[in-house]
C-alpha cells in the first residue's frame, strides 16, 4: 500500500475533456465498476488533483464501460480517508505534509467529486468508500528525518469488494479500474468467480509489459482509457475522452 503523497509538485497541463454524451445506452444487466481513486486521479491529473476534471473524466469512463458491456454501471470509488490522516497528524504532533494543504484537498474533493456521488447528481451511479488505516512513518531528506502519516488498506478493501461483487446474484460483470499490481490477484478466476460469472475485467491506461496483471490478460485484453476505442466481441466502441488520460501511471 502507498503512503500519502503531497500535492506540492507542479501539475500537468490541463487536458480538455469533451462533454459527456447523453444518448441512451442499451442495458442488459449490471456491471460493478470498482475504481481505485488514487490511480484514477493520477491517470487524469498526475500528482495535483483537479476534482472537477476528475468528476467529468469518471463520468466518461463509467459511460464507456456501460457501452462496452451494454450494461448499467454500479460504481464504487475507493480512496484514502484524508480526514483520518488529518486527525492522526493533529493528535500525533508530527511533521509532514502541511495540514492546511490536506484540509484544502479534503474540501475540494468533497465539493468537486464526492458530493456528486448521490442520486440525481452527475455521479449518481457511484458510491464513495473512504477507507484505510493510518500509521506513523518516517522519511529522510537533506534536512533530516521527518515523520508523517502512512495510510494503507485501500487495496485490501477493493479486493474484498471485487470478490463480493462476483458473488452477488445482482451483478453480471465486474470491472476493476486500477493499475496497482497489488490488486492483480483479484483478477484470478479461482479467487473471484462464481459458476457462470464471466472473468473480472481490467480497465486502465496502458501499462508496462511486466505488470503483475499480464498473466490474467491473455484472453481478455484490458479496456484502455488512453486509447480511442475498444473491441469487444464483434463490436468496436469509441472513447472520445481518451486524450484526457495519461499513459503508464
Describe the structure.
The chain is of the alpha/beta class. Helices cover 29% and strands 24% of the residues. The protein is built from six helices and ten strands. The chain has helices at residues 37-45, 51-69, 82-92, 99-112, 154-167, 189-192; strands at residues 30-36, 72-80, 126-131, 133-141, 144-152, 173-177, 201-204, 223-224, 229-232, 235-238. It has a six-stranded parallel beta sheet. It has a two-stranded antiparallel sheet with strand order 4-5. Strand 6, helix 6 (189-192) and strand 7 (201-204) form a beta-alpha-beta unit. Helix 1 (37-45) crosses helix 2. The longest helix has 19 residues, at 51-69. The protein starts with 29 loop residues before the first strand and ends in an 11-residue tail after the last strand. The relative contact order is 0.19.
Largest sheet: 6 strands, parallel
Low-confidence segments, ≥5 residues, pLDDT <50?
1-13
Mean pLDDT: 84
> In angstroms, what separates the terminal alpha carbons?
16 Å
* CA-based shape: globular
Fraction of residues in H or I helices? 25-40%
Radius of gyration: 18 Å
Structural class: alpha/beta
Discrete helix count:
6
Beta-strand portion reads 15-25%
Keyphrases for this structure?
249 residues, alpha/beta, 6 helices, globular, disordered N terminus
Amino acid at each position: 500500500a502507498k503512503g500519502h503523497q503531497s500535492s506540492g509538485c507542479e501539475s500537468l497541463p490541463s487536458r480538455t475533456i469533451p462533454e459527456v454524451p447523453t444518448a441512451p445506452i442499451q442495458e442488459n444487466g449490471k456491471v460493478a465498476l470498482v475504481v481505485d481513486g488514487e490511480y484514477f486521479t493520477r491517470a487524469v491529473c498526475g500528482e495535483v488533483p483537479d476534482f472537477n476534471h476528475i468528476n467529468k473524466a469518471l463520468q466518461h469512463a463509467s459511460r464507456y464501460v456501460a457501452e462496452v458491456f451494454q450494461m448499467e454501471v454500479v460504481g464504487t470509488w475507493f480512496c484514502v480517508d484524508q480526514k483520518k490522516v488529518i486527525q492522526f497528524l493533529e493528535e500525533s504532533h508530527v511533521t509532514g505534509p502541511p495540514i492546511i494543504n490536506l484540509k484544502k484537498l479534503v474540501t475540494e474533493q468533497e465539493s468537486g467529486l464526492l458530493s456528486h456521488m448521490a442520486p440525481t447528481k452527475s455521479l449518481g451511479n457511484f458510491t464513495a468508500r473512504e477507507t484505510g488505516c493510518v500509521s506513523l512513518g518516517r522519511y529522510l531528506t537533506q534536512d533530516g528525518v521527518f515523520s508523517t502519516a502512512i495510510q494503507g488498506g485501500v487495496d485490501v478493501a477493493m479486493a474484498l469488494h471485487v470478490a463480493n461483487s462476483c458473488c452477488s446474484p445482482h451483478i453480471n460483470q465486474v470491472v476493476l479500474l486500477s493499475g496497482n499490481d497489488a490488486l492483480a490477484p483479484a483478477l484470478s478466476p479461482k479467487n473471484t468467480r462464481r459458476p457462470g460469472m464471466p472473468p473480472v475485467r481490467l480497465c486502465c491506461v496502458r501499462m508496462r509489459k511486466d505488470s503483475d496483471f499480464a498473466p490474467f490478460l491473455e484472453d481478455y485484453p484490458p479496456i484502455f482509457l488512453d486509447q480511442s476505442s475498444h473491441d469487444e466481441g464483434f463490436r468496436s466502441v469509441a472513447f472520445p475522452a481518451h486524450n484526457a488520460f495519461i499513459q503508464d501511471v
